[in-house]
Amino acid sequence: MRSLLCLLACLTLLGGCASKPKDPSGIWINQAAIDAAVDSQHLREALLAYGPNLEWNLNSARQQATFSNGFELADGQLSAQADGLWQVSFYGENHEVLKPEGELLIQQASATWPEQRFARPKVKVDAAAPAGSSFEYSLYEAFLAGSWKIRSGPGEGGLVIFHADGKLDGLPGAERFALCLAGDCAAMSGEYDSLWLQLGQEGNEWIFVRDGDQLQIFEALNRAQPDEMPDLHPGPQRWLLERD
């Protein structure tokens, strides 16, 4: 009888442990989108194919969940569900379901979004950095890693370095950059990849094309009428960079 009670107690304990979902707290990034951008060298196509969500920040103790899509943030309430699932509830009836699977976090397909996969970031980001920075830093390091030599354009012969935190060295007239991920910049540049180059408080949109170890940066020409949303297209090439 005592053995039977012990067995039942063990089974109950094991069952409770098995039913408790794995804690997903922390930051998760859409590594699949980054890998696709690096492989294809087409940033917009990769984000459209593997996004739109780029980063989750989860805190099970506070029941908080925040996601970033590169343009806006949304906060939801995180709660544990059966079968190892976690639900993020937003205002109204909207909710998303997340499931930790090994080293991945799976955002299950819903009426709003397709299935998306997230991984832990390898690039360290300061705790005070804005939400979404882990994805951006990881993307910048992977997509623009290394030093680039200016083959043509202002500063020809010099070296350019794109830092993971958005700092830029060696490109005349610019000290910071940002790749366009979503939002107004994506709507304005359409099918083209674009980036923002800034010096001090002044900056402009540029169109870029990656081709192997070469990076072309073009002036962004606006074909829209004054009362229309800007419609940016590649203009004259300003720089041709080659990975050093």
Protein topology:
Elements: H1 2-19, E1 26-29, H2 31-40, H3 43-50, E2 55-59, E3 64-68, E4 73-80, E5 86-89, E6 95-101, E7 104-107, E8 116-119, H4 133-143, E9 147-152, E10 159-162, E11 168-169, E12 176-179, H5 184-189, E13 193-199, E14 202-211, E15 214-222, E16 232-243
Antiparallel strand pairs: 1-2, 2-3, 3-4, 4-5, 5-6, 6-7, 7-8, 9-10, 9-16, 10-11, 12-13, 13-14, 14-15, 15-16
Helix pairs in contact: 2-3, 2-4
The CATH architecture of the largest domain can be given as Beta Barrel
Which class of secondary structure composition applies to the elements? alpha+beta
SS strand fraction: 35-45%
> Would you tell me which CATH topology of the largest domain applies?
Lipocalin
| Fraction of residues in helix | 10-25%
* Count of domain modules: 2
Overall 3D form: elongated
What does this structure look like?
β2 and β3 (64-68) form a beta hairpin. The protein has helices spanning 2-19, 31-40, 43-50, 133-143, 184-189, and strands spanning 26-29, 55-59, 64-68, 73-80, 86-89, 95-101, 104-107, 116-119, 147-152, 159-162, 168-169, 176-179, 193-199, 202-211, 214-222, 232-243. It folds into two domains: 24-140, Lipocalin (Beta Barrel); 146-243, no CATH class. Mean pLDDT is 91; it is low at 4-18. α2 packs antiparallel against α3 (43-50). It has an eight-stranded antiparallel sheet with strand order 1-2-3-4-5-6-7-8, with no helix packed on it. An eight-stranded antiparallel sheet has the order 11-10-9-16-15-14-13-12. The chain is elongated, with a radius of gyration of 22 Å. By secondary structure, it is of the alpha+beta class.
